[in-house]
Amino acid sequence: MVGSVTSNADFLGGLDPDDPRQASQQIANKLRAAILTQKLAPGDRLPSQPDLANRYGVARETIRRALEILRNERLIVTRQGSGAFVRAQTQRPVELRPLIEAAFENPHVTIDFAGFAGETLRDAIAEALDRVRAGQFAPETIAVRLLISDMSVPMALPALAATGGDDAAVRKRQERITRRSTDGIIDQVEELGDLGLVKSATVEARVHSIAPTFKLYLLNGREAFFGYYSVVKREVAVSGKPVEIFDPMGKDVTLFHYAADDDEGSHGTQFVESSKVWFDAVWNSVAREYRP
């Protein structure tokens, strides 16, 4: 119910003594993940500062710093004498890394990615995989699917700025970048299975001829993160020479978060389910096997 007090906050978990981050940042990350996965729903009141301080064994000032982080991110509002509440609108830009980490708290982790090069995913997943190696996360299985643009064939983007057209050398440069990211994800994930740290760790990758205009992440079949690439005119080195290209930039792209819930008619549920249908349709039709 909107405006209700969160009575059972076991999903917030406890602090990780091996996590080098400050307690306030850890607490903010846990609350953020709970909000963005709608375990704390829009309008819900967060546990009180004394309750949070007791839960995590920290001073009230640490809790205030954690809440300040979420206030600055416009995830919560505070009302004098009433406490802190989840904002009514939480479909907002988000950082991917803490949500990737939250996904690894599940016994069976699935990640579907559709996009350009996968550099952001490679970097975001690295820390979660390191925590599996350290025994801080213990999923039983990890399954990743990568759906990426095939830079070995003519493509609308990236393109030569001078002509706006396809250029084989420009694509070759991007293909090297894409392969580094894709192969990096494959190596990192499959290593966990080879070391026996999880029962199963697999990565499947397929390529297609659709020009990259957006990126999509699906986590555990319950959350979707969607963002448009910005097409930027910039100078890069191609075959050792400076060349201006139109480049789809994804590193700092704004991602919007949608979470499925028990209401089949909710906006978040519809977006997640539609995204899963789209991903599977492309995967099973025009996509073809990626060859390292």
Structure description:
There is one protein chain. Residues 1-7 have low confidence and may be disordered. This protein has a seven-stranded mixed beta sheet, with helices on both faces. A three-stranded antiparallel beta sheet has the order 5-10-9. It is globular. The chain is of the alpha+beta class. The protein has two domains: 10-86, Arc Repressor Mutant, subunit A; 96-289, Endonuclease Chain A (Endonuclease, Chain A, 2-Layer Sandwich), CATH 3.30.870.10. The protein is built from seven helices and twelve strands.
Outline the secondary-structure elements.
Blueprint: H1 23-36, H2 49-56, H3 60-72, E1 76-79, E2 83-86, H4 96-103, E3 108-115, H5 119-133, E4 141-149, E5 159-160, H6 168-194, E6 200-208, E7 214-219, E8 223-228, E9 230-238, E10 241-249, E11 256-259, H7 267-283, E12 288-289
Parallel strand pairs: 3-4, 4-6
Antiparallel strand pairs: 1-2, 3-7, 5-10, 6-12, 7-8, 8-11, 9-10
